[in-house]
Amino acid sequence: LVAFKDPAEKPITVSDVAEAVQRKFFHGADLAIKEKRVNDHKEKVFEAMLMKRILSKEAKARGIHERFAYRARVEQNENSLVFGKFIETAIRPSVRVDEADVKAYYEAHKDDFTNPELVTLDSIAFPDTAKAQAALDKLRAGADFTWMSVNGDGLVSEEKQDPELKGRTLTTSSMPQALSKAIAGAREGEYRMYSTAGLCYVVKVARKVPTEVRPFEAVKNEIIKELFNRNLLKAVKEWAAKVRQATDVEVFISRLDY
Residues 9-24: pLDDT tens digits? Predict the structure, then answer.
């Protein structure tokens, strides 16, 4: 495969394309080959390689590479790459996270690692409190919920009911305060009454998963990553301070007001 007949430029070869395709598959190309997914990528990869060369040639033909804005962007990108390499080789290897700090962070931020209480609700809607109370009494006396949802006296049509109360799983913190208050303390299988938008519901707590703090081992890696990034940022700032002390820094603008 040859992009251009340019003696100063090596052609794009089959080997180049194969290597670029290989890099697209994080877990290796063997599985992709077995699943016959490689063919879907090779043309796109080649076109991307070709387009990169074409754009580069066109930019040079128009003299864009000589313009100040272009050179400034290239310099900025080079500086970014150099700085990134400096962080990876000079700073990152020295950054550590102590086990004691990880455990201390866990203890101080347990709220962040707490799963909220989950409740699955079902309901029967009535136009007024009296009919809802009568249905609630029957259910508490042993009436079947499914039967009552079809044969109850004065039922409200399905389309007028709140879909959130029909088999949806909600967190108690996300549901309306009045609903949360109505079902507070209820166990699975219990019935409560709740009014909203002109309707009165008999609500069944079909399922309840209590709030739970995730164990330390389950969140340990998350905390290590968070603390590592904090320590890395701190180390970068310390290096920046050392550079400032050793270098004359001339400030042209300290504040912009619009």
Answer: 778 888 888 887 777 7
